[in-house]
Amino acid sequence: MASFNIVMPKLGESIQEGTITKWFVKEGDTIEEDDMLFEVATDKVDSEIPSPVDGVITKINYPEDSLVAVGEVLAVVSLDGEVEASETETESKEVAAKTEDTPVKADITDASVDDSRKLSNRFYSPLVKTIAKEENVSFDELESIEGSGVGGRVQKKDIMAYLESRDSSAAQPAAMKESKPAAPAAPVLEKKSAPPVSVGAGDTVVEMDRVRKLIADHMVMSKQVSPHVTSVVEADVTELVLWRNKNKEAFQKKYGDKITFMPIFTEAVAAALAEFPMVNSSVDGDKIILKKDINVGIAVAKPDGNLIVPVIKNAEQRNLVGLTKELNRLADAARNNKLDPAEIQGGTFTITNFGSFGNIIGTPIINQPQVAILATGIIEKKPAVLETPSGDVIAIRHKMYLSLSYDHRIVDGALGGAFLRRIADYLEQFDTNRAI
């Protein structure tokens, strides 16, 4: 019987595992190519995965809520459209026997652990192994952690809870701990714990959903990794506003898309990044990775209150019409949870629009592993002094604040300030004679 294995897809360069949040099929179901098989959640996005083949689902290896490593076989599809019970049962028994009897290498580097003992009957996800390595968790310690996942698997929350309890234990008075000779160690930054929060009688406790927890972790990580500096400029965008007001109806009639200010901001950012490649980069240890492509992410608020950042690839190669169409498409897909994993990956710079909520200015947090992020404030009418051949006059102008947060490890004030000023220059010198 010809069969096809459905495996956990790799949904991003840094993604090593995903959680199956929902199966749309069950064993014995007949499927066609492009039928939705399951929904998978990662720390980046939730995605619905379609079938690449026609056939019959003969076996599902993992139930819902399972955390599965990339490349693992999730289900088996019979291409002949037949289900042979005896063969399926045999395969199931073989898989179960292998799972029970075959030790799996934990692959955790720790010089204090004898290599002969690095065999385990437990599966450790790449994320858990990475945390263990970074936090110097020995193999024996990892084996002792009680897992809350399927089959006792250690999940991220389990190892984080262990680390928290270990840190608390380490902070106890020396008299309460076993006396051990102190080994010299390099000074490390003390991890700060949040202060306890009291809950009053009328207070409501709301559990963070999975996406909100991931956003929270990502933001805290970014502040810990990058020394943030924010620069601000005020831009006179009067000509830009007048051009849009004059042409927006004709633009929509001709191209079928509404033109907002965001495509114009994106155009200016892409042009500035081409001139200042150091801002279009990432940091890898003591190396600076200058990105070849200019991929601009746009922060989009979803109806559930969470945030997602779809990416316009090669933004510098698109004209204003192309940027408008792509931005509208991505924003609509984001709000309806229809983004493909590839559409939120590969960003080299991010724009967040505080002005859409009536805010005049903000200090955004860098979207790692990028090194800068631009916040655009609301456009307001303001009195301004203009120089004319006959002298200075006060006029009503459309103005806005642009604020740039950047990673001070590689972007200093001169570079950050010049880059931000160039974006403002592009907006102030917008070509009002361009045809739509």
Please write out the topology.
Elements: E1 3-7, E2 17-23, E3 30-31, E4 36-41, E5 46-50, E6 55-60, E7 67-69, E8 73-78, H1 85-101, E9 104-105, E10 119-120, H2 126-134, H3 139-144, H4 156-170, H5 210-225, E11 228-236, H6 238-255, H7 262-275, E12 281-284, E13 287-290, E14 296-298, E15 300-301, E16 307-308, E17 311-312, H8 320-335, E18 349-353, E19 372-376, E20 380-388, E21 391-407, H9 413-428
Helix pairs in contact: 7-8, 7-9
Structure description:
There is one protein chain. By secondary structure, the chain is of the alpha+beta class. The protein has nine helices and 21 strands. The strands form six sheets. Strands 11, 14, 17, 18, 19, 20 and 21 form a seven-stranded mixed sheet that branches. A four-stranded antiparallel sheet has the order 1-8-6-3, with no helix packed on it. Helix 7 packs across helix 8 and helix 7 crosses helix 9. The longest helix is centred in the middle third of the chain and has 18 residues. The chain starts with a strand and ends in an 8-residue tail after the last helix.
Features:
about 425 residues, alpha+beta, 7-stranded mixed beta sheet, 4-stranded antiparallel beta sheet, about 30% helix, globular
- Tell me the overall shape: globular
Rg over CA atoms, rounded to whole Å, is 27 Å
Would you count the extended β strands for me?
Answer: 21
State the secondary-structure class.
alpha+beta
Short overview:
It contains nine helices and 21 strands. The protein has 436 residues and is of the alpha+beta class.
